[in-house]
Amino acid sequence: MDFNHLHSARTTLLNQRWYGEDSISSASIWDRSSYREAQPIFQAIESAIADRFRVISVRKDDWDKKESKAPSAEAIESAKPVIINATRILGRFLVPASQPTPPFITTDEEGAVTVQWNYQGRELHLRFTATDAEYTKVWGTNIHSEMEEDYLKDDSLKSLCQWLLYGSTHRR
Amino acid sequence: MDQHIDDSELVYRSVRNDGEESRIEDGKLVIYSSAFKDNNKEPSVDRALLLEHNPEKSRKDSTQGVIALCVLDIRNISGVESSNPAIGHAIDVIYDPLPENKAHAKIVTDPILGGSRSMQDKTFKKLQKALARLATEAGWCLPPPR
Questions:
Q1: Contact between chains at B32 and A143 (C-beta distance less than 8 A)
Q2: Could you tell me where the beta strands, DSSP code E, fall in chain A?
Q3: Is the ipTM of this complex over 0.95?
Q4: What residues of chain A lie within 8 A of the CB of B77, using their CB?
Q5: What does DSSP assign to residue B145?
Q6: First vs last Cα of chain B: how many Å apart?
Q7: B76 touching chain A per CB within 8 A
């Protein structure tokens, strides 16, 4: 598999998703064959995510022997489509030349569903409870100056993915 | 009892290696915030100095690995002084020996960082992320058995 072509395809898809069709045509580096080649990788990652949801869905209280609560069905149902959506956005640009890794999905002490993506020193965390969802950006270890958190809104997923990839919500 | 621990000391924590607290991503070890779960919001660690700097003595299970963190790095997660004179830093590591573990210490958070209960919860979540990041940067001090 030629990963240079994949990189071009990723760049073009990034333009398409975040900047509209015009930037796609102006970029003129679309490589459909590379994108098709990468499809099995995307499908494998989504399949791994589905498997992971099957694992966390059957957790009972104290599943980890650390008194963590079982996740609620509502938290799982709200997390699943958002994680798949984010993975589809990111997967187009994060296909590595080695082993692709799905995001880390688990449940925390309160039974919330959590997911973490890592990319070039940046971490994007999403956390889903039965009633709401929030995100945390992490780019260092200082909790005051190197982390940012807020509620996850319907329209914030793309900019969060963009931050993970580029460290900025502005186009470079 | 003096609870103070010097900045230069190392503390150990045993971490699961079954994909729930750590795993390999793109060829590199990543340790997750789930490695620092604690319902009292005071994750336990062991003072390396009191275990003769032998991380094997901190391993909770033969399948787990052990990470070592520097106390100063943990204190710098906040970088804010505590309002409580008994605790030097808003995020601190204090000595807390147990009958069954004389090396036991715990990572504590001054309520000054949180305020309301929900803000304290959020602060603890961020603390866990910071600890996981420090642990990832440090890597295994004692790797899990293959």
A1: no
A2: 104-107, 113-119, 122-128, 133-138, 147-151
A3: no
A4: 141-143
A5: P
A6: 41
A7: yes
> Which residues, 6 or more positions from A155, have their beta carbon under 8 angstroms from its beta carbon?
none
**How many helical (H) and strand (E) elements, i.e. helices and strands, does chain B have?**
2, 8
Does the beta-carbon distance from B73 to A108 stay under 8 Å?
no
Convert the pLDDT of each residue in A118-171 to its tens digit: 988 999 999 999 999 999 999 999 998 999 999 999 889 989 999 998 887 554
Determine contact: A120 vs chain B, CB below 8 A. no
Residue B1: CB atoms within 10 Å = 6
Tokens 């080695």 sit at which residue? Answer: A98
Please tell me if residue B57 touches chain A, with a CB cutoff of 8 Å: no
pLDDT tens for each residue of A103-116? 999 999 999 999 99
Considering only the beta carbons, identify the residue of B26, B34, B126 that sits closest to A98: B26
Output the CA–CA distances (angstroms, integers) from residue B65 to A57, A81, B54, B141, in the order listed: 27, 34, 13, 8
Q: Is the pTM of this model over 0.90?
A: no
Burial of A32 (0-12, 13-18, 19+ CB in 10 A): exposed
* Residue A90: pLDDT band with limits 50, 70, 90: confident
Phi (first) and psi of residue A55, to 5 degrees: -70, -50
- Determine the residue of chain B that is closest to A102 in CA distance: B25
The answer to whether residue A144 neighbours chain B at the CB level (below 8 Å) is yes
B69, containing H or E segment = strand B65-70
Residue type, A73: A
β-bridge partners, A116: A104, A125
